[in-house]
Design brief:
By secondary structure, the protein is mainly α. The protein is built from 6 helices and no strands. The C terminus is likely disordered.
Length: 81
């Protein structure tokens, strides 16, 4: 389930930047099949690749992994107000 959610985020990020899976694969030095498997949630992203992916899409790692809504809600509830 978590792999599918992360995969969906990756696909949305890629498409929002109008990148092809092949372009992402070249830039991250992985195969297009790996990008596809990550996006479909059929293969987990190795921990050593998560930071590279977050940096590539210019998004904090926490937002990539946990999603925008969950992180923003956490930050609001932890603001001390």
């Amino acid at each position: 389930m978590l792999r599918q959610l992360l995969g969906k985020r990756l696909r949305i990020l890629r498409m929002s930047k109008n990148y092809s899976q092949e372009a992402v694969a070249i830039d991250l030095n992985i195969s297009p099949q790996t990008v596809s498997a990550w996006e479909r949630g059929t293969r987990a992203i190795p921990i050593e690749n998560l930071a590279d992916v977050a940096r590539y899409y210019d998004i904090p790692l926490s937002k990539l992994v946990h999603g925008l809504d969950q992180v923003d809600a956490f930050q609001l509830s932890d603001s001390g107000d």
